[in-house]
Amino acid sequence: MAKIKCPFKASEIPEGGAKCVELEGKKIAIFCYKGAYYALDDTCPHEGGPLSEGFLEEGEVECPWHGARFSLKTGEVLCGPATRGVRAYHCQKIGEDLEVEI
Ligand code: FES
């Protein structure tokens, strides 16, 4: 596992928002929720919806395409139509930077 620095500052992600970034060839969605940062695979396992464009509520992200919900902390699927979760990565704010463990 390596710690990879995101090519943007933590402040570029608004509270309750997300940004998609490609790190080590993977599309990863970075979320800012209640002041903490979370990283999940961006691609919904149902039909490929972009989770970085989803809605955040109660520590979960809802896929913008058909509404599957995933835990921001673990990537576990909490509500279909997706039948499996997404990978979660440890994401840490260091100064103004964000580091993701991949
Ligand atoms: S693509 Fe995400 S719920 Fe269908």
From TrEMBL:
<dbReference type="GO" id="GO:0051537">
    <property type="term" value="F:2 iron, 2 sulfur cluster binding"/>
</dbReference>
<dbReference type="GO" id="GO:0046872">
    <property type="term" value="F:metal ion binding"/>
</dbReference>
<keyword id="KW-0408">Iron</keyword>
<dbReference type="Pfam" id="PF00355">
    <property type="entry name" value="Rieske"/>
</dbReference>
<dbReference type="InterPro" id="IPR036922">
    <property type="entry name" value="Rieske_2Fe-2S_sf"/>
</dbReference>
<protein>
    <submittedName>
        <fullName>Ferredoxin</fullName>
    </submittedName>
</protein>
<keyword id="KW-0411">Iron-sulfur</keyword>
<keyword id="KW-0001">2Fe-2S</keyword>
<keyword id="KW-0479">Metal-binding</keyword>
<dbReference type="InterPro" id="IPR017941">
    <property type="entry name" value="Rieske_2Fe-2S"/>
</dbReference>
<feature type="domain" description="Rieske">
    <location>
        <begin position="5"/>
        <end position="100"/>
    </location>
</feature>
